[in-house]
Design brief:
It is built from 2 helices and 10 strands. It has 164 residues and is an alpha+beta fold. The chain has one domain: Nucleoside Triphosphate Pyrophosphohydrolase, CATH 3.90.79.10. The strands form 3 sheets. Strands 4, 6, 7, 8 and 9 form a 5-stranded mixed beta sheet that branches. A 3-stranded antiparallel beta sheet has the order 1-2-3, with no helix packed on it.
């Protein structure tokens, strides 16, 4: 009994015993951290070799929990070593990422760090807190700044409903 499988365009294609193909989708899970300072500004990072600002975060590694993935990504991008609390609050539509040949879903997490000891990490070139509206002024070849602003607006909408 031989099964043939191949990965293409974010899918695993397996040949069934009857010769028909079975298609399974691969999804890369990405997490983004929405962190505010006391002035209501959002923490953003410009990663090395990137031309745009984005929320810190990235793809989960196999076997990681959400918390361990957030901690790793925050360390890699903004040098953060402390503890944190988080609340998952939104998810993106799936999108195909050509450079990794996979479909991706991004989950947005509101993160409350224990401290604000941030500095560029090994993958971060620059970091700063900016007013959320400034994300809309950022020009990029991808829509990361607009998605980051969308996450901010979604959190504000959810938070205002909770306060009411």
């Amino acid at each position: 009994m031989i099964f043939m499988s191949k990965i293409t365009n974010g899918h695993i294609i397996t040949q069934n015993l009857d010769g028909t193909d079975h298609l399974d989708c691969l999804y890369r899970i990405s997490l983004k951290a929405l962190i505010y300072n006391d002035a209501g500004q959002v923490l953003v990072v410009k990663e090395i070799d990137r031309t745009y600002w984005d929320l810190p975060g990235g793809g989960m590694d196999f076997g990681e929990t959400i918390e361990s993935s957030l901690k790793r990504e925050l360390f890699e991008e903004v040098g953060y070593k402390g503890g944190l609390r988080y609340q998952l609050f939104d998810a993106s539509d799936e999108m195909y990422i050509e450079r990794i040949d996979a479909n991706q879903i991004c989950f947005y997490c509101r993160v409350w760090p224990e401290n604000f000891d941030f500095m560029p990490g090994e993958e971060g070139d620059e970091i700063m807190f900016i007013n959320p509206e400034e994300l809309l002024l950022q020009k990029s070849e991808v829509d990361a700044p607009a998605r980051a602003y969308g996450a901010h607006m979604k959190w504000q909408e959810l938070h205002s409903e909770i306060v009411r």
